[in-house]
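Human:
I keep going back and forth on a fold encoding question. Comparing notes only helps if you start from a blank page. Show me how you would write down a chain together with its backbone fold. Write it directly below this note and I will take it from there.

Assistant:
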Amino acid sequence: MLDKSIPHYNVIMKRSAGIPLPNSALPPGYSFSWYVPGKEEKWAEIEASVGEFDHIEQGLDYFRTEYLPFRDELKRRLLFIRNEDGEEIGTITSWWNLTGGRRDPSVHWFAVKKEYQGIGLGKALVSECLNRLQLLEGDRDIYLHTQTWSYKAIGLYLKTGFEILSHESFAHYNNDYDKAVPILKTVLY
C-alpha cells in the first residue's frame, strides 16, 4: 500500500551491473505466471488495490496506452504471482525506458495486494524480475522510478542491491533526492 500520509517526491534508484542477483523463492502454495492477453484487468485490479490508481478503469486505460502496443513483450516481461486458488495477487514488470538514444532496463509497477504483504512475495517478485531483466537485456545497470509513498518497496529495493541516486535520472523522470531523502530517513531508518 502506498502511504499517502507523507509528502510525495520522486525517487530514482539504480542497481549497478555486475552485482550478484538475488535468489528469493516463493513461499509454498504460490506460483508465478506470465501475462497472457486478457489479464489486463487483473493487473489494473492489483495496482488499484495498493493505491496506484483510483479505480480499475484508470489502471486499464494506462495499461492499454503504455503496454498493449507491446503485446509480445508483455508475454515475457509482465509477471504475476498467483495464490493457491489461482488468483493473481501480485505483479511486477521487467521493462525498459529510453533515455535519449539509450535503452535502460527498468523495473515497472511492482505491487502485492495488501492482505498478501509481509510473507516474502515481494522479495520473490523482485528477484524474478531482476533475473528476467538480466536474461533479456544482459548484465547492465537497472533503473527504477518510485516515490516516497512507496518507502516499504524502497526498503526492499535497497536490500536487493539498488541505490538511491542523488542527481542522476533516466527516461523522463524527475529526481527529487534533496526533498525525498529527509522523509525517507524518518520512515526507513
User: Anything to note?
Assistant: The longest helix spans residues 121-137.
